[in-house]
Amino acid sequence: MKSMFSPAEIRKDFPIFAKTMRGGNRLVYLDSGATSQKPRSVLDAERNFYELHNAAVHRGAHLLAEEASSEYEGARAVLAGFLNAEVDEVIFTKSATESLNAIAYSFGNAPANSKFSIKPGDRIVVSELEHHANLIPWQQLAKRTGAELVWFPIDGEGRIDLSKIDELITERTKVVALTHQSNVLGTIVPIEKIVEATHAVGALFVLDACQSAPHFKIDVKKLGVDFLAFSGHKALGPTGIGILWGRLDLLNHMEPFLTGGSMIESVTMTDATWAKAPKRFEAGVPNMAQAVGLAAAIKYLDALGMDNVAKHEKDLTGYALNQFANLDGVNVIGPKNNIDRGSVISFEITGIHPHDVGQVLDQYGIAVRTGHHCAWPLMRKLGLVGTTRASFYVYNDESDVDSLISAIDEAKKYFKV
Amino acid sequence: MKSMFSPAEIRKDFPIFAKTMRGGNRLVYLDSGATSQKPRSVLDAERNFYELHNAAVHRGAHLLAEEASSEYEGARAVLAGFLNAEVDEVIFTKSATESLNAIAYSFGNAPANSKFSIKPGDRIVVSELEHHANLIPWQQLAKRTGAELVWFPIDGEGRIDLSKIDELITERTKVVALTHQSNVLGTIVPIEKIVEATHAVGALFVLDACQSAPHFKIDVKKLGVDFLAFSGHKALGPTGIGILWGRLDLLNHMEPFLTGGSMIESVTMTDATWAKAPKRFEAGVPNMAQAVGLAAAIKYLDALGMDNVAKHEKDLTGYALNQFANLDGVNVIGPKNNIDRGSVISFEITGIHPHDVGQVLDQYGIAVRTGHHCAWPLMRKLGLVGTTRASFYVYNDESDVDSLISAIDEAKKYFKV
Amino acid sequence: MELDSLYQEVILDHYKHPQHKKLNPSYTAQVHHVNPSCGDEITLNVSMKDGVVESVSWDGVGCSISQASTSIASDLMIGKTLETALATVDAFSQLMSSKGNETGDENVLEDGVALAGVSKFPARIKCALLGWMAFKDAALQSGAN
Amino acid sequence: MELDSLYQEVILDHYKHPQHKKLNPSYTAQVHHVNPSCGDEITLNVSMKDGVVESVSWDGVGCSISQASTSIASDLMIGKTLETALATVDAFSQLMSSKGNETGDENVLEDGVALAGVSKFPARIKCALLGWMAFKDAALQSGAN
Ligand SMILES: Cc1ncc(COP(=O)(O)O)c(C=O)c1O
Ligand SMILES: Cc1ncc(COP(=O)(O)O)c(C=O)c1O
């Protein structure tokens, strides 16, 4: 394994690792949970699109428009392959945030007699683990429709407590929207049972795959979920591109979210009818270069092999958790071993505020994230003001963990704790 | 003038013009109305962001996050300068389509007692010139709220007919949303009087500046509008970035459209409060590289000088309209001279369908757009199935017009009309 | 010139003199199809009797390719059984997705083979298919009645 | 080390021993400010009498910079007239936006000058300003009452 998968070799594909950081240090990038770095092939793919094929897709009879369309639709096919989805089920948005809002608004826009309509007294189920992006859109939908927002609580390790599943998912439940992996604690949510319960009451299941799709193999057919969202920028791809995947039979009966050009079937001054998916959900000239860039990122991941990526991260997380266990005054928040958890490690150092920890690590070229990680309710539940979070990806290796651990020691010395 | 402003020199800054088109021809790109080409400096700026500063903005204590934030906020300042706006008034969206939908949804989400709320019987005013992106979102808002959608008709030349302004803009009117320049006919809408009438009844004015902001100087303070939208990709910028500008006193009282990370003030499981603009409207990790790329595009335009750009396009349009006047069986749709019109020329050739015209032009390396141009109601009103549209920008010159005119001759010969 | 592979003489002929382009007031199914990206629209009537296509008639606006293709399709379908007609539509669809690598079977598609060149121009495939898809839709509706 | 310009001894002292960090139950204005990007929160009470700041007290959570800065600010404001206090806040804001180019006037800002180094770390400026902005808000509210 080790010999096949070489983060040191991988780093050579990422121009940013040539950069010199504060204090003359090399970049130890442990913030891929926020956004990943990009390999050269992604930057080249975007540039190539602009330099050779740039035109508005689906809108012109000319050669560039043909080429742009085929690049853009080719990117869609790559993403469909990545998720084991049908091509027309893959919708390009600007981000997971947009994808999740799009689903919530589609519910909100549904006519009263539709499968998607939400009435007063209906239920929307989330969990205490959610990122704001998979919480606030549902809060707002509940407010707009009079539905009730309820949630799965978490246990002491930060795992979802399923004991009340039958009280949460009832005949009144219309949507269950859950994260696949916590961006704060790394816990992977065992969704099988929840998906089953959701479908048993005729509700729909939305998966926030922001922290899973970039890190392990996702097969939408096997998962059995109804909608899924993730962001390209966390998966080696460009900024400004996200994925909304939905089952085709659902998509073609949903109200669109953004309206405008290219998503219509017919338009008069007073009325419009909609094209089928994916166009139905892609109003306007799309983020073409970003779709092409994301496809290049997916090809890069596919070449590494998603199973290898997952194995590498699991091993590295195990290594890091062992190191953490030996540190005095440092407390890992969330699962303490690498079982059913991803490569995100949140921790606190007694007596040093996370923001100050991050500042000291920065001095050693180490980039981590600090704060509530857009999961403020989770922080409140855990009784924390924030954590310091290290998150790993394909370009990280044990030397990065070692740098982190020794810089934590320096931080403790600096703040005399 | 001619000597100062050299499209042939400008083309050297755009890598795509090195491409060989069908039939071995050079690229004559006359489709900037759909999307513009990108200068090298824009591609370099995006790449530079990824290679040196990539990190999630506003979210980390580390050096890359600091640099990314300063690049991103620096881009906002460049855009603010371009529009003569306050920095906090500039919101990055993914496109004009998103910007326009965002405004419409913000109205729709407003609580009943707010300035923005729309009730049954209220009025929304548009025009027959609108692109679908500035029509359908308002149709949908009208449907959702029970408001009435009314519109300015156009006259024979495709100019807005103001004679019924007092019947359209009344005490019941809440929003007036108009295009600044028609993407089909090139007509520039004289908005001064309409803005005045809008404000006289206490309504708000939304300007679709997609076809104006890239082509002539926009000063939001002078225009006196309340909201403005345009897309980066039509202004030499990357795909996947748009601008929503709004008056700060309005923005800070509007309901956000997309909810999620980074746009909040505080969050609990059941409730959230909002940050001030611009963050309030930028949920999630934003399209950072695209914002930086757009700023580079704006710098490129500023270096040319927007007044020079406008003068160049006006002259070139005048030249082209003169050539068109000499063609038999070719009919320009819209204003026949270059007064109060932009550099978009729609035409029809008797006996040849626009799609076929486009196909023949493509054979000569000429890229035009054909069809209804996402303004289907306008086409119906004009009694047309579509037009062929040539649109000019900074890299076009008289040689491009000459190529177009002679290829039109070839098309007529080919189809024996 | 590359263009000639798209605009065969036969096509230009059908375009100038479209067949069956006048809606027959009696029909067993009527459909209306549009091509939203370019605004082409077509109304097409089909009469089926005893599993056989008795008449096809249509009206609409569109480019030379869509008009000629609809003209060719209507002419070809009349007199065929539902089954044969649908197989013919399938053969044509396959030709359209051949990226210029097939010439089409003239015994099956007759004048339709003149449209083979369209398959090299991705943006025009929808134009060529409009009438055929409308026919298929109408024929299936007639069959189901 | 660059870090030392951020974390001066004075700051670490104030962090470990924050001044006036216990809410005074009587006040003329109370405010609650948050720093949404990092989750820092502060509640701050001000008592004004005859245009003079009688007491400042606070409670809250945050990093060393925000805690120390609030401690410094509270200590500094007590006894000042509203006008002088607001001028002091302005002087501090200006120091924070100086990008490391100013050292601050010790006569005006006293211990506050120890925070000058923060201005080189854009992400920390908000931390340093939290308490000062809360004070300004509360003082203006008290003044208006
Ligand atoms: C006048 C006008 N409004 C709105 C739009 C929509 O812009 P986009 O597709 O970039 O969102 C366009 C261009 O397509 C346009 O020309
Ligand atoms: C679990 C989770 N959900 C949603 C998001 C939102 O993604 P984005 O900000 O790219 O829209 C993130 C990352 O920020 C995340 O980690």
CATH class of chain C: Alpha Beta
Largest beta sheet of chain C, briefly? Answer: 3 strands, antiparallel
* Protein chain pair with the most extensive contact, residues per chain: A-B, 92 and 92 residues
Count of alpha and pi helical runs of chain A = 14
Low-confidence residue ranges of chain C? none
Domain count of chain C: the total is 1
In the CATH hierarchy, the third-tier topology of the largest domain in chain A is known as Aspartate Aminotransferase, domain 2
Rg of chain C, nearest Å: 14 Å
Overall 3D shape of chain A: globular
Task: Work out the strand percent of chain C.
Answer: 15-25%
H-E order of chain A: HEHHEHEHEHEHEHEEHEEHHEEHEEHEH
Q: Provide a count of the helices of chain C.
A: 6
Q: Ends of chain C: how far apart?
A: 47 Å
Assembly state (oligomeric) = heterotetramer
Indicate the CATH topology of chain C. Answer: Sufe protein. Chain: A
CATH class of the largest domain in chain A: Alpha Beta
* Relative helix content of chain A: 25-40%
For the secondary structure, the number of strands of chain C is 3
Let me know the average pLDDT of chain A: 96
Structure notes:
The complex is a heterotetramer, with two copies of chain A (417 residues) and two copies of chain C (145 residues). With 417 residues, chain A is an alpha/beta fold. Chain A contains 14 helices and 15 strands. The mean pLDDT of chain A is 96. Chain C is α+β, with helices and mostly antiparallel strands and 145 residues long. Chain C has a single domain, classed as Sufe protein. Chain: A, CATH 3.90.1010.10. Helices cover 48% and strands 19% of the residues of chain C. Chain C is built from six helices and three strands. Chain C is globular, with a radius of gyration of 14 Å. The interface between B and D is small, with 13 and 7 residues. The complex binds pyridoxal-5'-phosphate (2 copies).
